[in-house]
Amino acid sequence: MEDKEKSALDQAQESLTEEQKKKLQELIEEEEGVTRKVGGFWNTIITALAVGMSLFAIYSAVQPVTTQILRGVHVAFLLAISFLYYPLAKKYKGKINMFDIFLCLLGMACIIYMLVDFEDFIYRAVTPELWDMIFGILFILLILEATRRTSGLIMPITCIIFLIYAYVGPWLPAPWTHRGYDLERIVGHMYMTLEGIFGVPIDVSSSIIIMFCIFGAFLTVSGAGKFYVDFAFTAMGKKPTASGRAVIATSYLLAMASGSGVANTVAIGSVAYPMLQKSGYDKENAGGFLAAGGMGAITTPPVMGAAAFLIAEFLRISYVDVILLAIIPAALFYWGLLLMVEFDAKKFGLKAVHIEKKYTLWQLTKMYGYHFLPLIAIVVFLVKGFTPQVAVFAAIMVCFLSCFIRRETWFTVPKIVEALKQGSLTVLNVAAICASAGIIVGIVSLTGLGLKLSSIIIGYAGGNLIVTAIFTGILLWVIGLAVPITATYIIAAVIAAPALTQLGVPDYAAHMFIFYYALLSEVSPPTALSPFAAAAITGGDPFKTTMMSWKYAVTAFLLPFIFTVLPSGRAILLHWEGIGVVSGIWTIIAAFIGIGMLASGCSGWLVKKSSVLERILIIIGALAFVYPSRAGDILGFACLVLVIVMQKLRKGEGGSVATAT
């Protein structure tokens, strides 16, 4: 929007108190690390390195680069920038000391040593020389320190435990025992091959994730993020559900510019909470709704969280296939969320809120609708068969060129530099996690730990698929308490997914299961950062807000079991092997009905306020509907009709709607 006309996003963020801003910054730093605020010479150096990292990524997207060089240079930039941008501790966030500079140079030296004579270097992986060992040990320590700075201690400690496991294998009791590997073999595997730190996770980070981060930065700098917020709120009317619907629409649109659940929640909450409050939502309900909306955006095509790109790489499928896997589950999630908005409006007697509009929807679209073109470009190029790298490069170019349609959105040189800089700074947290996750993946492949853990999980579950899925979900919840989404997915992909596939679950369904449960760590206590961020905005109780976010996100907890445990439920992932077309389509329809009933049961409203018995019946019917069988459908319909009749026959409690401006 024009500078003299502040958007809804600007106005809402200005309304936050300094205390709220401080709390939000602390929560974001808890997830993404404490960053430095430096100026002058060091800001120029960080900017130059970040811009260089982005330009190299863009170059490699259109001009293929040797795998080792691509991954090595990406990690070199990661280490160099991380030690300058992320301080050793909070008290050093205002300055860069000699130790940081030394680590920055040492990180680049480790990569230069690796690339100088790479052909001979890789052949020495099993029997590394003295200098290989020195640089290899230093490199592993640097990766762990960079990860500590960007995402905390838990991930580095986890990596150290895995490294120790690789060494002490012969002395462990069954079934954990293995042959054991000496320091030379471990360092060689981690540093000198493409199976350790330079494995699949860092490959995806260097080729795809960084490109989408750059794309998100271009959208943000162009003003597209502000347009999406204004578009969503302008599209809503004056109904009691307007503010809730705006949250749903905004959460989806903002996902294009942010892959962080906390960042989405903060951006949405700062805009939407004043209106949710005026509508009649209490602090905890509003916070839970905001957190669920922010989290759901990460599961929604065409641009999803970093873990989605890793699914494509682990399964060796195209990103278009991942999008197809995610379409119906995402639609079901937002369908449930939308119905909860409708039910809440009646249950709480919410008020209609007047949303200030400087332009009509048509005027806003006519003036700034070109901000949708980059999103359309990504879909078109992916469908045409181009790689994700090329597709997102095309989208960046469309974003750049389309912004010249209006004078106030032109990309000036400072704007281009800022977009390139922010693209690289945004990827640092994920890239560090991917690098350290490579240690875990490498140890799992070296020791065969993945198969051992799968056997242990299946053994404890007695070979039962449902129990195995429950154990896997609990395992992911525990992992998610300590490490971010991307790391949770990577760890689960190598130690939990094999347990499901061994019991006959297709690999795509198994990976979608762990993808969803990795994401649910965003709203799971006791370290649910998204609800905590929402509570900081609303002033609500963090724990109660987390419980409310569970209510709104309940469909996301149920969906993975549908397409994992139930063969016909895999139609939800648009996979039809062994499923008739009619049966598959009905399964999807029944899932929408079932999710709608589940939303009703959780909200406590259908035709009118539901009694305890009616809520129990409607939830039983919902579960019967999502279980694809004729008996389940009959039971589901019976429960639905019974509850409607019971509520129609009962007088009163019809709910009321007031209007406020």
Description of the structure:
It is a single chain. Helix 4 packs antiparallel against helix 5 (98-116), helix 11 packs antiparallel against helix 12 and helix 23 (485-495) runs antiparallel to helix 25 (507-519). The chain is mainly alpha-helical. The longest helix has 35 residues, at 413-447. Helices cover 72% and strands 1% of the residues. The chain has helices at 8-14, 18-32, 40-62, 67-85, 98-116, 118-123, 130-151, 154-168, 183-191, 200-222, 224-235, 242-254, 261-279, 283-296, 306-315, 319-347, 361-368, 373-383, 388-402, 413-447, 449-460, 465-482, 485-495, 497-502, 507-519, 529-538, 542-552, 554-565, 581-603, 612-626, 630-649; strands at 351-353, 658-660. Mean pLDDT is 83; it is low at 1-9 and 655-661. The chain contains 31 helices and two strands. The radius of gyration is 25 Å and the shape is globular.
Shape: globular
Rg, Å, rounded: 25 Å
Largest pleated sheet: 2 strands, parallel
Strand order of the largest sheet: 1-2
Average of pLDDT: 83
Helix/strand structural class: mainly alpha
Query: Got a strand count?
Result: 2
What percent of the residues sit in helical stretches (DSSP H or I)? over 70%
Question: What are the low-pLDDT stretches, counting only 5+ consecutive residues below 50?
Answer: 1-9, 655-661
The end-to-end distance, rounded to whole angstroms, is: 24 Å
Given the structure, what is the number of helices?
31
Per DSSP, what share of the residues sits in E-state strands of 2 or more residues?
A: under 5%
